[in-house]
Design goal:
This protein is 46% helix and 11% strand. With 369 residues, it is an alpha/beta fold. The strands form 3 sheets. Strands 6-7-8-9-10 form a 5-stranded parallel sheet. Strands 1-2-5 form a 3-stranded parallel sheet, with helices on both faces. The longest helix has 24 residues.
Amino acid sequence: MKAHERIWKALCHEEPDRVPTFTQSIEDPFVRRFDEQVGIEDEAGLFPDMTMDMILARQLGFDSKWIHLHGSSAPARELPAELPPLPEGQVVGKTGVIHVRSDDGTKSWYYDGALKTPELVKAWIPYVRDFVPPDDGYYKGIKNMWDVGCAKDIVPIPTAGGPTMDTWASIGMRRFSYMTRKHPELVHGLINAWCDVTIEEHKRIFEAGIPYAFICDDHAQKDRLMMSPADWERFVEPVYKRLADNAHERGAKFLVHTDGNLNESFPGMCRAGVDAAEPLEYEAGMRLKPLKEQHGDKIALIGNVPSSDALCVGSVEFTVEITKQCIKDAAVGGGFILAPGANILATTRIENVHAMIETNKKHGVYPIT
Protein backbone atom coordinates (compact mmCIF):
# COMPACT_ATOMS: atom_id res chain seq x y z
CA MET A 1 0.00 0.00 0.00
CA LYS A 2 1.30 3.47 -0.87
CA ALA A 3 1.82 6.05 1.87
CA HIS A 4 -1.01 8.35 0.74
CA GLU A 5 -3.58 5.54 0.83
CA ARG A 6 -2.24 4.40 4.21
CA ILE A 7 -2.64 7.90 5.70
CA TRP A 8 -6.09 8.39 4.18
CA LYS A 9 -7.40 5.08 5.49
CA ALA A 10 -6.17 5.85 8.99
CA LEU A 11 -7.88 9.27 8.94
CA CYS A 12 -11.09 7.54 7.78
CA HIS A 13 -10.88 5.16 10.77
CA GLU A 14 -10.13 2.20 8.57
CA GLU A 15 -7.30 -0.28 8.94
CA PRO A 16 -4.58 0.06 6.27
CA ASP A 17 -1.86 -2.53 5.75
CA ARG A 18 0.07 -1.14 8.73
CA VAL A 19 0.05 1.84 11.07
CA PRO A 20 1.15 4.94 9.12
CA THR A 21 3.85 7.28 10.42
CA PHE A 22 4.26 11.05 10.45
CA THR A 23 6.72 13.66 11.64
CA GLN A 24 6.55 17.41 12.09
CA SER A 25 9.74 19.38 11.35
CA ILE A 26 13.15 17.76 11.53
CA GLU A 27 15.40 20.32 13.19
CA ASP A 28 18.48 21.44 11.27
CA PRO A 29 21.12 20.16 13.75
CA PHE A 30 19.67 16.66 13.46
CA VAL A 31 19.67 16.91 9.65
CA ARG A 32 23.34 17.96 9.65
CA ARG A 33 24.35 15.29 12.16
CA PHE A 34 22.54 12.58 10.21
CA ASP A 35 24.22 13.70 6.98
CA GLU A 36 27.65 13.62 8.65
CA GLN A 37 27.18 10.25 10.35
CA VAL A 38 25.00 8.35 7.88
CA GLY A 39 24.58 10.42 4.73
CA ILE A 40 21.40 11.74 3.16
CA GLU A 41 20.58 9.94 -0.08
CA ASP A 42 20.09 12.50 -2.83
CA GLU A 43 22.52 11.40 -5.47
CA ALA A 44 22.22 13.21 -8.79
CA GLY A 45 19.22 15.23 -7.61
CA LEU A 46 16.78 12.32 -7.59
CA PHE A 47 14.22 14.27 -5.57
CA PRO A 48 13.49 17.59 -7.31
CA ASP A 49 11.39 20.13 -5.43
CA MET A 50 11.73 18.24 -2.14
CA THR A 51 13.36 19.91 0.84
CA MET A 52 16.28 18.24 2.57
CA ASP A 53 14.26 17.39 5.68
CA MET A 54 11.54 15.85 3.46
CA ILE A 55 14.16 13.71 1.74
CA LEU A 56 15.49 12.69 5.15
CA ALA A 57 11.99 11.85 6.42
CA ARG A 58 11.57 9.52 3.46
CA GLN A 59 14.99 7.93 4.04
CA LEU A 60 14.16 7.36 7.72
CA GLY A 61 10.99 5.54 6.66
CA PHE A 62 8.23 8.01 7.58
CA ASP A 63 5.06 7.96 5.51
CA SER A 64 4.35 11.68 5.85
CA LYS A 65 5.73 14.99 7.02
CA TRP A 66 4.26 18.47 7.22
CA ILE A 67 5.39 21.49 5.24
CA HIS A 68 4.85 25.04 6.51
CA LEU A 69 3.33 27.28 3.86
CA HIS A 70 4.83 30.38 5.43
CA GLY A 71 8.31 29.24 6.30
CA SER A 72 11.41 31.39 5.95
CA SER A 73 11.66 30.91 2.18
CA ALA A 74 7.94 31.19 1.41
CA PRO A 75 6.19 34.35 0.29
CA ALA A 76 4.29 36.26 2.95
CA ARG A 77 0.61 36.89 2.94
CA GLU A 78 0.09 40.10 1.03
CA LEU A 79 -0.72 42.91 3.44
CA PRO A 80 -3.15 45.70 2.57
CA ALA A 81 -1.51 49.03 1.78
CA GLU A 82 -2.22 51.07 4.90
CA LEU A 83 -1.53 49.71 8.38
CA PRO A 84 -3.80 50.59 11.28
CA PRO A 85 -1.96 52.35 14.12
CA LEU A 86 0.47 50.45 16.34
CA PRO A 87 2.57 51.69 19.26
CA GLU A 88 6.22 52.32 18.44
CA GLY A 89 8.39 49.21 18.21
CA GLN A 90 5.50 46.88 17.41
CA VAL A 91 5.46 45.23 14.02
CA VAL A 92 3.55 42.96 11.65
CA GLY A 93 5.34 39.68 11.08
CA LYS A 94 5.69 37.82 7.82
CA THR A 95 2.53 35.77 8.28
CA GLY A 96 0.56 38.75 9.54
CA VAL A 97 0.87 38.14 13.28
CA ILE A 98 0.98 41.45 15.15
CA HIS A 99 3.69 41.34 17.76
CA VAL A 100 6.25 43.16 19.89
CA ARG A 101 9.97 42.70 19.46
CA SER A 102 12.04 42.29 22.62
CA ASP A 103 14.50 45.06 23.42
CA ASP A 104 17.43 43.05 22.12
CA GLY A 105 15.53 42.06 18.97
CA THR A 106 15.96 38.32 19.55
CA LYS A 107 12.32 37.50 20.31
CA SER A 108 9.20 38.52 18.49
CA TRP A 109 5.65 37.27 18.65
CA TYR A 110 6.04 34.76 21.48
CA TYR A 111 7.63 37.57 23.45
CA ASP A 112 4.42 39.61 23.60
CA GLY A 113 1.45 40.73 21.55
CA ALA A 114 0.88 44.27 20.31
CA LEU A 115 -2.90 44.70 20.42
CA LYS A 116 -3.08 45.52 24.10
CA THR A 117 -6.11 47.82 24.05
CA PRO A 118 -9.69 47.26 22.89
CA GLU A 119 -9.26 50.14 20.43
CA LEU A 120 -6.28 48.45 18.74
CA VAL A 121 -8.07 45.08 18.47
CA LYS A 122 -11.14 46.76 17.00
CA ALA A 123 -9.03 48.63 14.43
CA TRP A 124 -7.18 45.50 13.34
CA ILE A 125 -10.12 43.11 12.88
CA PRO A 126 -11.18 44.43 9.43
CA TYR A 127 -7.54 44.80 8.42
CA VAL A 128 -6.74 41.14 9.22
CA ARG A 129 -9.71 40.05 7.08
CA ASP A 130 -8.09 41.81 4.11
CA PHE A 131 -4.88 39.76 4.22
CA VAL A 132 -4.39 38.09 0.85
CA PRO A 133 -2.75 34.65 0.47
CA PRO A 134 0.05 34.20 -2.09
CA ASP A 135 -0.99 33.92 -5.73
CA ASP A 136 -2.02 30.67 -7.43
CA GLY A 137 1.51 30.07 -8.69
CA TYR A 138 2.68 29.49 -5.14
CA TYR A 139 0.05 26.79 -4.56
CA LYS A 140 0.96 25.15 -7.86
CA GLY A 141 4.48 24.83 -6.46
CA ILE A 142 3.10 23.24 -3.29
CA LYS A 143 1.09 20.81 -5.45
CA ASN A 144 4.23 19.94 -7.39
CA MET A 145 5.98 19.12 -4.10
CA TRP A 146 2.94 17.02 -3.15
CA ASP A 147 3.10 15.10 -6.47
CA VAL A 148 6.84 14.47 -6.20
CA GLY A 149 6.54 13.41 -2.57
CA CYS A 150 3.64 11.03 -3.14
CA ALA A 151 5.47 9.51 -6.11
CA LYS A 152 8.44 8.89 -3.79
CA ASP A 153 6.11 7.53 -1.06
CA ILE A 154 6.40 10.43 1.40
CA VAL A 155 3.25 12.55 1.81
CA PRO A 156 3.89 16.31 2.31
CA ILE A 157 0.95 17.68 4.35
CA PRO A 158 0.63 21.49 4.22
CA THR A 159 0.17 23.57 7.33
CA ALA A 160 -1.52 26.96 7.05
CA GLY A 161 -3.06 29.19 9.66
CA GLY A 162 -3.63 29.08 13.38
CA PRO A 163 -6.58 31.27 14.35
CA THR A 164 -6.38 30.67 18.10
CA MET A 165 -2.63 31.12 18.30
CA ASP A 166 -2.70 34.17 16.04
CA THR A 167 -5.35 35.71 18.28
CA TRP A 168 -3.61 35.26 21.63
CA ALA A 169 -0.23 36.02 20.07
CA SER A 170 -1.53 39.27 18.55
CA ILE A 171 -3.08 40.37 21.85
CA GLY A 172 -0.41 38.86 24.11
CA MET A 173 -1.04 36.27 26.80
CA ARG A 174 -0.82 38.86 29.57
CA ARG A 175 -3.85 40.68 28.13
CA PHE A 176 -5.70 37.81 26.48
CA SER A 177 -7.63 36.63 29.54
CA TYR A 178 -8.62 40.25 30.27
CA MET A 179 -9.96 40.63 26.72
CA THR A 180 -11.98 37.41 26.93
CA ARG A 181 -13.66 38.68 30.10
CA LYS A 182 -14.15 42.35 29.30
CA HIS A 183 -14.37 42.41 25.51
CA PRO A 184 -15.47 38.97 24.30
CA GLU A 185 -17.01 40.43 21.14
CA LEU A 186 -13.57 41.69 20.08
CA VAL A 187 -11.90 38.34 20.75
CA HIS A 188 -14.67 36.69 18.75
CA GLY A 189 -14.14 39.15 15.92
CA LEU A 190 -10.37 38.73 15.83
CA ILE A 191 -10.32 34.93 15.95
CA ASN A 192 -12.91 34.79 13.18
CA ALA A 193 -10.90 37.26 11.11
CA TRP A 194 -7.89 34.94 11.37
CA CYS A 195 -10.21 32.04 10.53
CA ASP A 196 -11.35 33.85 7.36
CA VAL A 197 -7.72 34.16 6.24
CA THR A 198 -7.05 30.49 7.03
CA ILE A 199 -10.11 29.29 5.13
CA GLU A 200 -8.96 31.17 2.03
CA GLU A 201 -5.58 29.46 2.26
CA HIS A 202 -7.12 26.03 2.83
CA LYS A 203 -9.42 26.51 -0.16
CA ARG A 204 -6.38 27.04 -2.35
CA ILE A 205 -4.72 23.92 -0.94
CA PHE A 206 -7.80 21.77 -1.56
CA GLU A 207 -8.47 23.26 -4.99
CA ALA A 208 -4.90 22.38 -5.96
CA GLY A 209 -5.79 18.74 -5.32
CA ILE A 210 -4.23 18.24 -1.88
CA PRO A 211 -6.79 16.60 0.46
CA TYR A 212 -5.22 17.49 3.83
CA ALA A 213 -4.42 20.68 5.73
CA PHE A 214 -3.03 21.26 9.20
CA ILE A 215 -3.35 24.34 11.33
CA CYS A 216 -0.57 25.00 13.84
CA ASP A 217 -2.75 26.35 16.58
CA ASP A 218 -1.18 26.06 20.02
CA HIS A 219 -3.90 26.48 22.64
CA ALA A 220 -2.61 24.39 25.55
CA GLN A 221 0.05 24.44 28.24
CA LYS A 222 1.77 21.41 29.75
CA ASP A 223 -1.05 20.66 32.19
CA ARG A 224 -4.16 22.46 30.88
CA LEU A 225 -5.59 24.72 28.19
CA MET A 226 -4.44 28.33 27.83
CA MET A 227 -8.00 29.40 28.63
CA SER A 228 -10.90 27.93 30.54
CA PRO A 229 -12.74 25.05 28.84
CA ALA A 230 -15.83 27.28 28.71
CA ASP A 231 -13.91 30.00 26.86
CA TRP A 232 -12.43 27.38 24.53
CA GLU A 233 -15.95 26.22 23.66
CA ARG A 234 -17.12 29.80 23.20
CA PHE A 235 -14.29 31.14 21.06
CA VAL A 236 -12.39 28.23 19.49
CA GLU A 237 -14.90 25.43 18.87
CA PRO A 238 -17.04 27.44 16.40
CA VAL A 239 -13.90 28.41 14.45
CA TYR A 240 -12.80 24.78 14.25
CA LYS A 241 -16.24 23.83 12.98
CA ARG A 242 -15.94 26.43 10.21
CA LEU A 243 -12.55 25.04 9.21
CA ALA A 244 -13.72 21.41 9.37
CA ASP A 245 -16.84 22.18 7.34
CA ASN A 246 -14.71 23.96 4.73
CA ALA A 247 -12.51 20.86 4.39
CA HIS A 248 -15.36 18.37 4.33
CA GLU A 249 -17.27 20.33 1.68
CA ARG A 250 -14.24 19.78 -0.54
CA GLY A 251 -13.72 16.10 0.35
CA ALA A 252 -10.63 16.90 2.45
CA LYS A 253 -9.41 16.34 6.00
CA PHE A 254 -8.80 19.04 8.63
CA LEU A 255 -5.97 18.35 11.11
CA VAL A 256 -5.12 20.32 14.26
CA HIS A 257 -1.68 20.67 15.79
CA THR A 258 -1.24 22.01 19.30
CA ASP A 259 1.40 21.14 21.84
CA GLY A 260 0.51 20.65 25.49
CA ASN A 261 -2.29 18.85 27.32
CA LEU A 262 -5.39 18.76 25.10
CA ASN A 263 -7.64 16.55 27.19
CA GLU A 264 -10.05 19.41 27.90
CA SER A 265 -10.40 20.39 24.23
CA PHE A 266 -10.93 16.88 22.82
CA PRO A 267 -14.73 16.86 23.31
CA GLY A 268 -15.03 20.20 21.52
CA MET A 269 -12.75 19.12 18.67
CA CYS A 270 -14.92 16.05 18.20
CA ARG A 271 -18.11 18.16 18.13
CA ALA A 272 -16.52 20.54 15.63
CA GLY A 273 -15.63 17.70 13.26
CA VAL A 274 -11.83 17.90 13.49
CA ASP A 275 -10.43 14.87 11.68
CA ALA A 276 -7.20 14.42 13.65
CA ALA A 277 -5.29 15.91 16.58
CA GLU A 278 -1.50 15.99 16.84
CA PRO A 279 1.09 15.56 18.47
CA LEU A 280 -0.45 14.26 21.76
CA GLU A 281 2.60 15.26 23.75
CA TYR A 282 3.50 12.42 26.10
CA GLU A 283 5.52 14.68 28.39
CA ALA A 284 2.42 16.88 28.84
CA GLY A 285 0.38 13.97 30.17
CA MET A 286 -1.36 12.83 26.98
CA ARG A 287 -2.07 9.08 26.96
CA LEU A 288 -3.45 7.13 24.02
CA LYS A 289 -5.48 4.46 25.81
CA PRO A 290 -8.10 6.77 27.39
CA LEU A 291 -8.16 9.00 24.29
CA LYS A 292 -8.86 5.99 22.08
CA GLU A 293 -11.55 4.71 24.42
CA GLN A 294 -13.31 8.06 24.80
CA HIS A 295 -12.85 9.72 21.40
CA GLY A 296 -11.23 7.24 19.01
CA ASP A 297 -14.35 6.67 16.94
CA LYS A 298 -14.69 10.39 16.20
CA ILE A 299 -11.16 11.77 15.79
CA ALA A 300 -7.91 10.24 14.60
CA LEU A 301 -4.90 10.33 16.93
CA ILE A 302 -1.43 11.31 15.69
CA GLY A 303 1.76 11.15 17.72
CA ASN A 304 2.57 10.32 21.36
CA VAL A 305 6.04 8.75 21.07
CA PRO A 306 7.94 10.89 23.63
CA SER A 307 10.22 13.25 21.74
CA SER A 308 12.49 14.01 24.66
CA ASP A 309 11.93 11.18 27.18
CA ALA A 310 12.36 8.45 24.57
CA LEU A 311 13.85 9.76 21.31
CA CYS A 312 16.37 12.21 22.80
CA VAL A 313 17.51 10.66 26.07
CA GLY A 314 15.94 7.21 26.20
CA SER A 315 17.52 3.92 25.28
CA VAL A 316 16.71 1.94 22.15
CA GLU A 317 14.98 -0.62 24.37
CA PHE A 318 12.76 2.03 25.97
CA THR A 319 11.92 3.48 22.55
CA VAL A 320 10.92 0.02 21.30
CA GLU A 321 8.71 -0.67 24.31
CA ILE A 322 6.91 2.66 24.26
CA THR A 323 6.36 2.42 20.49
CA LYS A 324 4.79 -1.02 21.00
CA GLN A 325 2.62 0.43 23.77
CA CYS A 326 1.37 3.21 21.45
CA ILE A 327 0.41 0.63 18.83
CA LYS A 328 -1.32 -1.54 21.42
CA ASP A 329 -3.27 1.38 22.91
CA ALA A 330 -4.45 3.14 19.73
CA ALA A 331 -3.97 1.19 16.50
CA VAL A 332 -6.79 -1.37 16.54
CA GLY A 333 -9.61 -0.32 14.21
CA GLY A 334 -7.55 2.37 12.47
CA GLY A 335 -7.66 6.05 13.35
CA PHE A 336 -4.04 6.14 14.54
CA ILE A 337 -0.85 7.53 12.99
CA LEU A 338 2.37 6.90 14.90
CA ALA A 339 4.57 9.97 15.31
CA PRO A 340 6.91 11.72 17.71
CA GLY A 341 5.13 13.91 20.24
CA ALA A 342 6.90 16.99 18.82
CA ASN A 343 9.59 17.72 16.21
CA ILE A 344 12.52 15.46 15.55
CA LEU A 345 14.55 17.60 17.93
CA ALA A 346 18.16 18.67 17.52
CA THR A 347 19.38 16.19 20.15
CA THR A 348 17.30 13.22 18.98
CA ARG A 349 19.31 9.99 18.87
CA ILE A 350 19.45 8.59 15.34
CA GLU A 351 19.28 5.00 16.58
CA ASN A 352 16.07 5.73 18.48
CA VAL A 353 14.31 7.07 15.38
CA HIS A 354 15.32 3.91 13.54
CA ALA A 355 14.05 1.83 16.47
CA MET A 356 10.66 3.58 16.43
CA ILE A 357 10.21 3.13 12.67
CA GLU A 358 11.36 -0.49 12.59
CA THR A 359 9.24 -1.42 15.61
CA ASN A 360 6.19 0.00 13.87
CA LYS A 361 6.95 -1.94 10.69
CA LYS A 362 7.21 -5.13 12.73
CA HIS A 363 4.38 -4.71 15.23
CA GLY A 364 2.10 -2.20 13.50
CA VAL A 365 0.97 -4.57 10.73
CA TYR A 366 -2.80 -5.13 10.59
CA PRO A 367 -4.51 -7.03 12.03
CA ILE A 368 -2.82 -5.87 15.22
CA THR A 369 -1.91 -8.80 17.47
